[in-house]
Design goal:
The complex is a heterodimer. By secondary structure, chain A is of the alpha+beta class. Chain A is globular and about 70 Å long. By secondary structure, chain B is an alpha/beta fold. Chain B folds into three domains: 98 residues, Fumarate Reductase Iron-sulfur Protein, Chain B, domain 2, CATH 1.10.1060; 138 residues, Rossmann fold; 113 residues, Rossmann fold. Helices cover 48% and strands 7% of the residues of chain B. In chain B, helix 21 links the parallel strand 6 and strand 7. In chain B, 52% of the residues are buried. At the A-B interface, helix 2 and strand 16 of A face helix 1, helix 2, helix 3 and helix 5 of B.
Chain lengths: 456, 386
């Protein structure tokens, strides 16, 4: 029996070799491409284990994929093989309020999970812009975070236990329902952010937290992004920790207003959004403190008038990354150099350097992102039919990555390395990369799990 | 055992560069498959459409969502030979348009998919069931291949009284003519007082042909309707089918005023003299009336004039498709009915009827089962006129 027939005995019609289907799984939202040989939609850990074991015996790469919303090619089969579309394993297996946690399959969509636990008064805080479609499995694989990371942390802070299929098909658990454990290596943390190179997550126990009773939003505009960066540093050094702290430069504002002209946003300058949460009075007090702290630097500063105004701004902000075509239909957002991060104190410098690079290469850029945790999303947009613009785009992205490292930062804060940023791993990690390679070798000696990623 | 080795795949990892360099060359090549490239390249593959595409929701494969369809169209533009392999993806879109509403990049996928279908037809890549639908329309002038008279629901006496000239034409549509003649009759009874007439040899509006890519055939059918409308001298065409409405409004020449039955009823509420009914109903927005033409309030105004409206879970712009459109009911009936069943999950508790204003939606939602009767808005109005 050849491998196709064997795979079919495991999953039946949930295997495809249709060229059109394979093509749909040959990319994510990045520019990385690679055709799979098979796409499979497994339904159980047993199926995943049998598939991986078979693949291992036959030296066939296996690449786990969630919703394919990744921005680094992490789920792209750059060396062919089997793509496991995990989005069909999407059940919530348990909501255990007494232990403040939930057990889910990896294909559950972040927003769907939060809708399900909202009636209990809880939420799962990491919230990427893609929360309407991205899966928890993908979030674990890339240690995703999002706008509320500044107060709530990243996915890493919310995983207690993982069920993982290793490269030889063995199924392990990496943790328990316990809040803490002092028994051995922390394999949960090893798997989180490993981008499917060490194992495939088939189940996760997640910590959930109580929903805040109130949220307030302070909207402030500044003469330029550098001044805005200074305002962020000043806010933090005054001891205020907002639940979100976002920057939207003037180009981003134009795009947002094009998407929804009714949005209440300042008409000039670069804008900071500070969200604070807590009880009604504590949130209001923190908002007022921010206003007091930043008003000497700001062109304008005010509190969002209603919950609806606040919700509208966040909804628009979440999707702004892809919306640049609304400003100029000949331009398309290309996700490269889009996820650098630096220590908060270096943010004004990063913003200044990014602006200089953008001007030097005459490539307009939208700057927005989670400035509160040092993570800048740079949106470069080009005419996709113009070869020269592609060349300049790649040069700009490269310079941005190198600048972030120079400033003591990272080439990726939350989107991951995948294949798109693999070339920078050596520069960012030095000899530590060899440790990662050794771990990979130990757990996946044949290198079948998501090969070609993480610079391994 | 045959193993798929890693060797030889590294080239694919470099495809990023190749793609960029090739774009200019591909553009210059003589392509047999061509749709507006700008519209396709606007898609940034963010996957927002995954969260709303109703077909993807029941099928699960990436090719069954809008992003997958855009990718496949991109591959055809870049030289993949058109083949039947693309049909389960490209022919299974209901053209409901919810992806266009949600797309942050401002892509209009229904337009792109319809253009791609037209190109596939040119290349001879056609879904067999959709081909049968085309043949039926060409042979009989209606989407069911019915050979009986389109106006058989009208008595001889009524027919003889039809004005030869009128400012108003009631465009009946295939569904109301052959499957729901009671809707046609009730609509005609309401409209008669305004001197409305009917086309002597009405043909299918061409919507099914346009949705499934048979553009040349559509032109022929539309021409036959146009000649008759011009001969009658009508300036306003009233239709009670959402599919006919969007086609007459957006694909016919702009020389007539096209008005949907809900709009007409809403405008003439006071003249129609409706009584209140002790009913609570939900309203299902047909995609072709709602999202495609932004007619949300007219039906609601009519319903509220008669009884209590309790909204469904997803309404107006966010309304979920019944699964009946885009050639999916005939091409992929299982998917189509599953969509309808999902739509029925949005119905609130404690209602007497689900009202809609499209016979395709009526048919699909009725066929999906459920305990609540689905009626056309004209039936509700007729009840209130009794």
């Amino acid at each position: 029996m050849d491998i196709t027939a064997e795979l079919r005995t495991i999953v039946g019609p949930r295997l495809s070799v249709s060229p059109s289907e394979l093509y749909c799984y040959s990319s994510d939202a990045s520019q990385v491409k690679g055709m799979p040989d098979y796409v499979i939609r497994p339904k159980s850990v047993d199926e995943v284990s049998r598939i991986v074991r078979l693949a291992n015996e036959n030296d066939v790469p296996v690449i786990a994929r969630g919703a394919g919303t990744g921005l680094a090619g992490g789920a792209v089969p750059v060396r062919g093989g089997i793509v496991l579309d995990m989005s069909g394993m999407n059940r919530i297996l348990e909501i255990d309020i007494d232990n403040i946690q939930g057990v889910v399959e990896p294909g559950i969509v972040q927003d769907v999970l939060n809708e399900a636990i909202k009636p209990y008064g809880f939420f799962f805080p990491p919230n990427p812009g893609s929360s309407a479609m991205c899966t928890i499995g993908g979030m674990i694989a890339y240690n995703a975070s999002g706008m509320r990371c500044v107060k709530y942390g990243t996915t890493r802070n919310y995983v207690r236990d993982l069920e993982v299929v290793l490269a030889d098909g063995t199924i392990i658990h990496t943790g328990s329902k316990m809040l803490k454990s002092a028994a051995g290596y922390d394999l949960t943390q090893l798997i989180i952010g490993s981008e499917g190179t060490l194992g495939i997550v088939t189940k996760a126990s997640l910590k959930i937290v109580p929903l805040p009773k109130a949220r307030k939003l302070v909207i402030a505009s500044f003469e330029n992004a550098e001044v805005a960066g200074k305002a962020v540093v000043k806010t933090f050094s005054n001891g205020i920790i907002p639940s979100a702290c976002e920057i939207l430069d003037r180009v981003t504002l134009q795009v947002l207003k094009r998407c929804d002209p009714k949005l209440v946003l300042p008409s000039e300058g670069d804008v900071l959004l500070f969200e604070v949460d807590g009880t009604e009075s504590s949130a209001l007090e923190a908002a007022e403190q921010i206003i007091e702290t930043c008003s000497s630097l700001a062109l304008s500063i005010k509190l969002a008038e209603s919950e609806k105004a606040m919700a509208d701004i966040w909804a628009a902000r979440k999707l702004v990354g892809a919306a640049v075509s609304r400003l100029d239909p000949t331009k398309t957002r290309i996700y490269v150099g889009e996820d650098v991060g630096v220590p908060i104190i270096r943010i004004p410098e990063l913003l200044k350097r990014v602006q200089e690079i953008s001007e030097e290469f005459n490539l307009p850029a939208m700057k927005y992102g989670h400035i509160g945790d040092g993570n800048l999303h740079l949106a470069l947009f080009i005419d996709i039919l113009n070869k020269d613009e592609w060349n300049r785009l790649n040069q700009v992205a490269d310079l941005i990555h190198r600048t972030a490292m120079e400033l003591g930062g990272t080439v990726s804060s939350e989107h991951g390395i995948g294949a798109a940023r693999a070339e920078y791993m050596k520069a960012q990690w030095g000899p530590a990369l060899e440790v990662m390679r050794a771990i990979k070798k130990a757990l996946d000696p044949k290198g079948i799990l998501n090969p070609g990623k993480l610079g391994l | 055992m045959k193993a798929v080795k890693n060797e030889g795949k590294e080239k694919i990892a470099q495809a990023k560069e190749l793609d960029k360099n090739e774009i200019g060359e591909i553009k210059g090549k003589d392509q047999s498959f061509e749709v507006d490239r700008r519209s396709v390249y606007k898609c940034v593959q963010c996957g927002t459409c995954r969260s709303v595409c109703p077909v993807f929701n029941v099928v699960g494969w990436e090719s069954a969502n809008t992003r997958g369809r855009m990718l496949i169209i991109k591959s055809l533009l870049e030289g993949m030979p058109p083949s039947e392999d693309v049909l389960p993806s490209l022919a299974s879109c209901t053209i409901c348009g919810i992806c266009a509403v949600k797309c942050p990049a401002g892509v209009n996928p229904p337009d792109v998919v319809e253009s791609a279908r037209a190109e596939l037809v040119k290349c001879g890549v056609i879904n067999n069931s959709q081909e049968k639908l085309r043949a039926a329309i060409i042979a009989s002038g209606n989407s069911f291949g019915e050979t009986k008279d389109r106006l058989s629901w009208l008595s001889e006496a009524e027919r003889s009284k039809l004005p030869e000239k009128s400012d108003y034409v009631y465009f009946i549509g295939c569904f109301n003519s052959y499957r729901y003649p009671e809707f046609a009759k009730k609509t005609f009874q309401i409209l008669q007082r305004y001197g409305v007439t009917l086309l002597p040899d009405e043909q299918c509006c061409a919507s099914p042909l346009l949705r499934t890519g048979f553009r040349e055939d559509a032109e022929e059918v539309m021409k036959r309707n146009l000649e008759q409308i011009r001969k009658v001298g009508a300036r306003t065409i009233i239709t009670s089918c959402a599919g006919c409405y969007t086609t007459l409004k957006n694909s016919y020449p702009e020389e007539f005023h096209i008005i949907s039955l809900p709009e007409f009823l809403a405008e003439h509420l006071e003249e129609i003299n409706l009584k209140r009914l002790d009913l609570t109903v939900a309203y299902h927005d047909p995609c072709h009336l709602g999202r495609h033409n932004k007619i949300y309030e007219a039906s609601r105004k009519v319903i509220r004039a008669i009884c209590t409206l309790r909204e469904m879970k997803n309404i107006k712009e966010d309304s979920r498709c019944c699964g009946g459109g885009g050639g999916v009911r005939i091409g992929y009936p299982e998917i189509s009915l599953e969509l309808a069943r999902k739509r029925l999950e949005d119905v609130p508790e404690g209602i007497d009827f689900i009202v809609t204003s499209c016979p395709l939606c009526v048919r699909n939602l009725r066929d999906a089962g459920g305990n609540i009767k689905i009626i056309d808005i004209v039936e509700l109005v007729a009840m209130a006129m009794e």
